[in-house]
């Protein structure tokens, strides 16, 4: 049975109330940190280790000189071909039964490979705990047959969640209804994301949204060549040590010093 879920973000219905941002913080019990005014309603300026959902505020003037606000909820896109999962050396990042990407935080070693690999610039590192954090689409709520906190809080219907095929169909139907430059974003990249947008403008108009995200070539190099070689090398060291133990027995404490264990005889 296909259990893949997709969260649909219809930016044309969003009023930037930030209810989703607050609900995410509350449900995941993340602390608030002092921020600085940067001349925008957007706060904090970017995703943080303690902010997994961020409402982006963007002033936009089109080619006809017409001004409009562009609001976009930013967070993990939960890629099918997830670069973060590919590079994680400990298995801390993994795909769930819903197709989303979650974390075993206790396995995170703070290497930050996922931070540099993510094409959407989502994972965030916390120096205090030496770990990386990101949205898991409220996996605990999904497993309890509940909506993610952000979806539950949305009062305009901009956020919805459901089976993959049904949500993609819904997204394209909405784009057809809107017309103009409206488009669906996310279903054609990195194997398809489990968070997709209905955008009112072309993707390149939106700040912080990559036009054609893809898994970095360096990630594939790590996954297919360097990582297996490092594991092979580690296996060789372990194997050599074991062979030495079988042939020579346990190493005596003073072997390294060159001392004669027979008392100088």
Strands side by side in the biggest sheet: 8-1-10-9
**What's the average pLDDT?**
87
Major beta sheet summary: 4 strands, mixed
Q: What overall geometry do the principal axes of the alpha carbons give?
A: globular
The CATH level-2 architecture is identified as 2-Layer Sandwich
**How many distinct helices?**
7
Structural class: alpha+beta
Secondary-structure element order, N to C: EHEEHEEHEEHHEHEEH
**Percentage of residues in DSSP E strands:** 15-25%
The end-to-end distance, rounded to whole angstroms, is 75 Å
How many strands? 10
CATH fold annotation:
Alpha-Beta Plaits
Helix content: 25-40%
The total number of structural domains is 1
Describe this protein with a few key phrases.
265 residues; alpha+beta; Alpha-Beta Plaits; four-stranded mixed β-sheet; 7 helices; 18% strand; disordered C terminus
Descriptive account of the structure:
With 265 residues, the protein is an alpha+beta fold. The chain has a single domain, classed as Alpha-Beta Plaits (2-Layer Sandwich), CATH 3.30.70. Helix content is 29%, strand content 18%. It is built from seven helices and ten strands. The strands form four sheets. A four-stranded mixed β-sheet has the order 8-1-10-9. The protein has a two-stranded antiparallel sheet with strand order 2-3. The chain starts with a strand and ends in a 17-residue tail after the last helix. The relative contact order is 0.18. The C terminus is likely disordered.
